[in-house]
Design goal:
- The chain is of the alpha/beta class and 433 residues long.
- It is 44% helix and 15% strand.
- The chain contains 17 helices and eleven strands.
- The strands form two sheets. Strands 7-6-5-8-9-11-10 form a seven-stranded mixed sheet.
- Helix 12 links the parallel strand 8 and strand 9 (296-309).
């Protein structure tokens, strides 16, 4: 009798202490769970062994990346239903060791062990970062982390990002349902950054973490500035240089493979850091802010566009998301926006404006997911199936995280205000509807 799904449902509900909100379809074809709900497809027993040897998010991530688990139905709905069980257990949730003191939990684990078969731990998928000993956020470790994320395939990123090749939150004047497009929204974001920085002909801009060159090209083409863009990704730099040449902007845009800590040809009139500071790390953030302060002229402006997390009651208990750290952004760290503002001020900046654009990132991510899903077959030819599955999961889960205010994104405008106190900014930097 095929009954693996019902057994799994019962065991998971014993472990979680509440009903499972999704259906289960097991390797023997059996199904169980609420009718009409998205279905968690457990393709094989190896998925259970992954969960047993790495309980929680990392075990689920490994099973998903390896193709041992899948979702049949709307991915967003499934992730939303499961988020309370996996990602939103809260600061007071029981640790695995604490949970195992519960006799019912121990019984459920024994049941899973029996159902999973021979207790051999499966090897992690090849897409998982292989950790090496050493300090975080050295120049060498940062190069490795950036390469893992960005040196994937420029053609793959073209599928996901679309023609704009901007890998950060767009700025939507109107959602697509009202006639807006991703390309329009990304252009508007680059223009918003340019206006906040007060870019004009003859000025110098440093674009830290320049990606595939979109901000550098926009600033030079639309505002006549001279731009230096720095990235640690060889593939990004090669792509960006070709775009710059195709635009006829080689006299105004220089793309370097260089760590921002090694930039020594300041001062600059303005610095843009768009979606880069998440890679810096808490221990290095004041150094990052100080380096950018040093590279600006008195009166120069910094636009720091950065994802933020919600603050914790006990900040020392913060840990990096296991899935993101192992498969997406190795060594990446998020900080509350208040922490970011404080560190910029400690470095000497005057913070003049903080704009939250959290909802805009949810719209952007949903469009990236749609791009990937619409050209899935091509994506699988460009990267491994596991890599494509990583990107689909992390972007969909991130969209929900922004929508539910678990994370946010902020543009912080800061000035190296001179001793005279003249910031060079107008009395009102923006108007409200």
């Amino acid at each position: 009798m095929a009954d693996a799904a019902l057994r799994l449902q019962n065991l998971f509900e014993q472990l979680l202490g509440e009903p499972l909100p999704v259906r289960i379809r097991a390797w023997d074809g059996s199904q169980a769970g609420p009718p009409g709900a998205p279905t968690l497809v457990v393709h094989n027993r190896r998925a259970l062994r992954r969960l047993l040897f790495k309980p929680g998010e990392l075990g689920l991530a490994r099973a998903w990346v390896a193709g041992d688990l899948d979702i049949d139905g709307d991915l967003y709905t499934a992730l939303d239903l499961m988020s309370g069980l996996v990602w939103e257990r809260g600061e007071d949730a029981r640790t695995p060791a604490g949970a195992l003191r519960d006799p019912e939990v121990r019984a459920a684990v024994r049941g899973l062990v029996k159902l999973a078969g021979p207790p051999l731990p499966p090897a992690p998928p090849p897409e998982e970062v292989r950790r090496t000993r050493g300090h975080l956020h050295t120049k060498r470790s940062d190069r490795r982390a950036i390469s893992h994320h960005y040196d994937v395939s420029n053609d793959f990123y073209e599928i996901v990002l679309g023609p704009s090749m901007v890998y950060s939150c767009a700025y939507w004047q109107a959602p697509e349902a009202e006639g807006g497009t991703l390309e329009d929204a990304q252009r508007d974001k680059l223009e918003l950054v340019s206006r906040k920085l007060g870019l004009s002909a003859g000025r110098r801009l440093l674009d830290v973490g320049c990606g595939w060159g979109s901000m550098a090209i926009h600033a030079a083409r639309e505002h006549g500035v001279s731009v230096v863009g720095v990235t640690l990704s060889q593939e990004q730099a090669a792509y960006a240089r070709k775009r710059v040449a195709d635009e006829g902007l080689t006299d105004r845009v220089e793309i370097r493979v260089q760590d921002y800590r090694d930039v020594a040809d300041g001062p600059y009139d303005a610095i843009s850091s768009i979606g880069m500071a998440e890679h810096v790390g808490a221990e290095r953030y004041l150094e990052y802010a100080g380096d950018l302060f040093r590279l600006l002229k008195p009166g120069g402006r910094l636009l720091n566009h950065q994802i933020a997390r919600r603050p914790r009651r006990d900040e020392s208990a913060y840990s990096v998301d296991e899935f993101i750290d192992a498969y997406v952004f190795p060594d990446g760290e998020l900080a509350p926006v208040g922490t970011t503002v404080t560190q910029l001020e400690r470095a000497g900046f005057e913070v003049r404006d903080v704009e939250s654009i959290r909802e805009h990132y949810a719209l952007t991510l949903r469009r990236w997911v749609a791009n990937l899903e619409s050209d899935w077959a091509t994506a699988l030819r460009l990267v491994s199936p596991g890599r494509a599955r990583v990107w689909r999961l992390y972007m969909a889960a991130s969209a929900l995280a922004f929508e539910h205010n678990r994370i946010g994104v902020n543009q912080v405008l800061a000035v190296r205000t001179p001793d005279s106190g003249d910031s060079g900014l107008p009395l009102r930097t923006r108007t409200w509807n």
